[in-house]
Amino acid sequence: MTTKEILIKAKNAKNELLLLSTEEKNKALDAMAQAILENEDEILRENALDLDAARGVISDVMLDRLALDHKRVSDMAKGVTALIALPDPVGRVISEHTLENGLTVKKTSVPMGVIAIIYESRPNVTSDAAALCLKSGNVAVLRGGKEAFRTSYAIVRAMKKGLEAVGMNPDLINIVTDTTRESANELMTAVGYVDLLIPRGGKGLIRACTENATVPCIETGTGICHIFVDELADLDKALTIIENAKTQRPSVCNAEEVLLVHEDVAGEFLPKLKELLVDGRKAEGKPPVELRLDSKAAKIIDGVPARDTDFDTEFLDYILAVKVVSGVKEAVEHITLHSTHHSDGIVTENENNALYFTTVVDSAAVYVNASTRFTDGGQFGLGCEMGISTQRLHARGPMGLNELNTYKYIITGNGQVRK
Amino acid sequence: MTTKEILIKAKNAKNELLLLSTEEKNKALDAMAQAILENEDEILRENALDLDAARGVISDVMLDRLALDHKRVSDMAKGVTALIALPDPVGRVISEHTLENGLTVKKTSVPMGVIAIIYESRPNVTSDAAALCLKSGNVAVLRGGKEAFRTSYAIVRAMKKGLEAVGMNPDLINIVTDTTRESANELMTAVGYVDLLIPRGGKGLIRACTENATVPCIETGTGICHIFVDELADLDKALTIIENAKTQRPSVCNAEEVLLVHEDVAGEFLPKLKELLVDGRKAEGKPPVELRLDSKAAKIIDGVPARDTDFDTEFLDYILAVKVVSGVKEAVEHITLHSTHHSDGIVTENENNALYFTTVVDSAAVYVNASTRFTDGGQFGLGCEMGISTQRLHARGPMGLNELNTYKYIITGNGQVRK
Fold it and tell me: How far is B113 from chain A, CA to nearest CA, in Å?
């Protein structure tokens, strides 16, 4: 099927989904999860073909992300089932008031319509995204990476079978079969068909969407996260927080990439940091963190000299850029210039500095005395998420079910006219 | 000054505005209003030059919109002052909760940053938009129509004087001095400088923004509004509502452009409608409404045969396209294909039909038994507005102060790390 044909089917399925009750949507989710389990053999067979084709083409880390087994298939089904317990985001009354003339004005949450998701090679995104769309009343058009195409297609086929088994329209979930760049461009410019585009992936994909999309788009993901250790920081807290933010899982978007440290405490703090992240980890047989130091930090501890680009790089690795600053103002100025507006934090015991930092730093999540690793729908208590929005329009930070809705005003009267 | 230089100044002023208290912003608004009144002579002098240059170039209706007098200047100042009483949208705690690990997660409203507004020739948009931006914590970059440039520039100059008089940065309000198409393009693509672009104007401007903007953009304005008279409508209510929606002020975006009428009541309803909107108005010396009829309606009453394009036209005039449909489903299908997602209504006494209509019609405002003319920030009780958003992302319908904000999460702990 061409991408255009898929988009027409998706658009035509919108109204049907609008009219489903919460119970019907939950029944669909249950059937989708069941069908994933029942079709495990086929999914694993197609996954093996994807893996064979990808070996030698993509990195071992990426191969690992792509590989499925019984446990991962079960986890996908569990991820779909988990949405059943979450409240239906559609139909929430956000506000309601009656005007003097008797008109009631009700602001009510409604689905976006058709949501297109362009993502890379992780197969579980296929089932997660489809389930989030369905629960939030949106028709999904998925466009996964070509390395995982056979797997994703098998997962979608299973979910469509699930929908059919309970008498629902299989077009509520769609996957684009053209895996060339052309189909991504088609989705980005499908005005009148795609109501929201969500790219999930690296910098290149996000930039392509920002530059080329003529449909509404939400940027997700890229995180150059900063932590500033203030003059008035509790240095032990700072060490614990930075160790966690940098090393607990360096490959994710909410990991720390840049450390800013106040010049008045750098002399005491940086040697302790080096002991913890470099020498201590080596002694424990863990991968040490490579410290990339600006000229002031390099006068205090040993490390790799930082290049300018190190302060604009999402390393996603055991690397930390370090810069000594004169205070909270310079720290905030640096963050304003270099942040990707994802997650940035301050470690301080001083309330005024904390307030200045949280007021002026313009990021989705701004932390005081905590690890940036908490920026996550699950951690925030919002349930599963479609990604982390780094833009200001519509949704910012974790995008859960509510963020996949918009609203409309429903105005009810008995013949009122405007004077 | 080049547009780029203006954008740099605007960006640099962002943090200053973030740190102003509500009282300081209100003081600024008061000073801006005062300065508009004090500089009335200069504003009127510049306006006279604009009018001289525009005569013969733009229509009489547009000339009237452009012309200022003592009353209109006073009204502009009053519009600015009116914002003082409205609640500050910045710093609202949208939600707050404490996680098991003791972290508090606070979702707080914050300004967008720099808002660029591209608009056409009404001078009062200049003061309204500047004041709405300031109260909502945003730096304004205005780019008005070239016919009104001298007037707008004089208004901005006055407001800047007002800011300076109370010791504030005049760069909080900016106007682009290049009135060629080039400066509009620069604003649309000023990634890193413009945090939100709001085009206010006709279809051509909106389309140019949708197609070319690489900065976040909110579409406003175009309204092809429908009213459907159901089989189970109270026909007297329907007549009153349609008369108001079509004739009370036909030049605005929430006026009705298309009437859909159920085939079972068309025979009774259409002759009454023609009597009211055509013959009755003629008898009273008011401009009659031109009815453009589809083939079924033309069998019932006299009128102009409708062309296909009449159902996709924002007339903004005493013209109404009329189509006979088989029921609420066909009405909703027609609206889905032709609506601009602004305001659409149903007249019916049947609750199921009303529910079906409000559920499936995907517009910012959906009406039951009331005139579409109510879609307006003031009418909805939301205060002044920057325009009516017809898109789904972020803000939908009237964009008041709250809609000119985004949010961020502020997370406060005492050393928490992720397990």
Answer: 9
Could you tell me the strand order of the sheet in which B405-416 lies?
A304-305, A290-293, A319-325, A256-262, A225-229, A343-347, A365-370, B405-416, B104-111, B93-98
H/E stretch holding A27 = helix A22-38
Q: What does the alpha-carbon distance between residue A214 and residue A413 come to, in Å, rounded to a whole number?
A: 37
CA A278 to chain centre: 30
Q: How confident is the model at residue A2 (pLDDT cuts 50, 70, 90)?
A: very high
pLDDT score, position B211: 83
Interval B41-85: pLDDT, tens: 999 999 999 999 999 888 887 888 899 999 999 999 999 999 999
Q: Smallest Cβ distance to B216: which of A15, A214, A392?
A: A392
Residues with Cβ within 8 Å of residue B134, at least 6 apart in sequence:
B17, B25, B28, B29, B32, B140, B172, B173
User: Which residues of chain B neighbour A373 with C-beta distances below 8 Å?
Assistant: 417-418
- C-beta atoms of A411 and B374 within 8 A: yes
Yes or no, beta carbons of A415 and B234 under 8 Å apart: yes
Contact A374 B234 (CB under 8 A): no
> Nearest Cα to A128, choosing from A202, A78, A163?
A78
Give the count of beta carbons closer than 10 Å to the beta carbon of residue A346: 29
Q: Report the residue from B18, B244, B363 with minimal CB separation from A360.
A: B18
Q: Which 8-state DSSP code applies to residue A279?
A: I
CB-nearest partner of A216 from B359, B369, B391: B391
First to last CA, chain B: 53
Chains A and B: how many Cβ contacts under 8 Å?
194
Domain A225-374 fold: Aldehyde Dehydrogenase; Chain A, domain 2 (3.40.309)
Which top CATH class is A3-221+387-412? alpha beta
What value does the mean pLDDT take over residues A147-154? 96
From chain B, pick out residues whose CB is under 8 angstroms from the CB of A252: none
Interface contact B410-A241, CB threshold 8 A: no
Distance CA A102, CA A97 (A): 10
Residue A215 scores a pLDDT above 80: yes
Tell me the per-residue pLDDT of B307-330, one tens digit each, with 9 for 90 and over: 999 999 999 999 999 999 999 999
Residue B94 — pLDDT band, cuts 50, 70, 90?
very high
CA A358 to centroid of chain Cα atoms: 22
At position A349, the amino acid (one-letter code) is E
pTM here?
Answer: 0.92
Interface TM-score (ipTM) > 0.90: yes
CATH code for the part of the protein at B3-220+386-412? 3.40.605.10
DSSP conformational letter for A275:
I
Cα→Cα distances B180→A27, A162, B3, B147, Å: 57, 57, 11, 11
Residue ranges of the domains in chain A?
Answer: 3-221+387-412, 225-374
